């Protein structure tokens, strides 16, 4: 049913929805959920008439309530747990299919489900790297919110931020090493746009004379 359900149009709509939701969630602090009013009230309480200057630091500008309650508890943790349950179910179904005895009237499931298992492992690796990259920063945010007196070393914060940025570079590498079709397309794009090499197959087909 996959080919009938996952059409290019539906895939494009799903991708567009993901980007729209990402923009709305990421831009929420710009819509007003930030520490601007809190900093102004603090200045008023201090009876300071000097120029209002914002210290440009992440924890100073961005609300930790937004980062923990809205970002982590709504948009990161539930989808992560849901994807974990889905992958566990996928691996369980594939294992059951691979353990079935092959009858004389049925085709060997090893060939099809072996390929499916390899793809599932690759996607599970992407999910694991995502959790490994993003959970440390969210855990530090939870510590900052729920334990204001606790001091976390700055080096841990820098490492956590570095992991979140590095996660964006991990996925293409994982896909390229684990999925043959992605690796072929990746090498083709790399050779064409970075090494200025043309595809020989494409050139031979385009150079053929017409009838």
Which helices and strands, and how do they pair?
Layout (H helix, E strand, L loop, with lengths): L1 H4 L2 H19 L9 H10 L12 H4 L2 H12 L1 H23 L9 H38 L7 H25 L1 H14 L6 H7 L5
Helix pairs in contact: 5-7, 6-7, 7-8, 8-9
Q: How does this model look, in words?
A:
The chain has 211 residues and is an all-alpha fold. The protein has two domains: 62 residues; 134 residues, Rhopdopsin 7-helix transmembrane proteins (Up-down Bundle), CATH 1.20.1070.10. The protein contains ten helices and no strands. It is elongated and about 80 Å long. It starts with a helix and ends in a 5-residue tail after the last helix. 3% of the residues are buried. The C terminus is likely disordered.
CATH fold-level assignment of the largest domain: Rhopdopsin 7-helix transmembrane proteins
Work out the strand percent: under 5%
Structural class of the secondary elements? mainly alpha
Mean pLDDT: 85
Number of helical segments? 10
CATH class of the largest domain: Mainly Alpha
Structural shape: elongated
Biggest β-sheet, characterized?
Answer: none
As a whole number of angstroms, the C-alpha radius of gyration is 25 Å
Q: Domain count, please report it.
A: 2
Percent of residues in helices: over 70%
The count of DSSP E runs of length 2 or more, i.e. the number of strands, is 0
Measured distance between first and last alpha carbons: 40 Å
What is the second-level CATH architecture of the largest domain?
Up-down Bundle
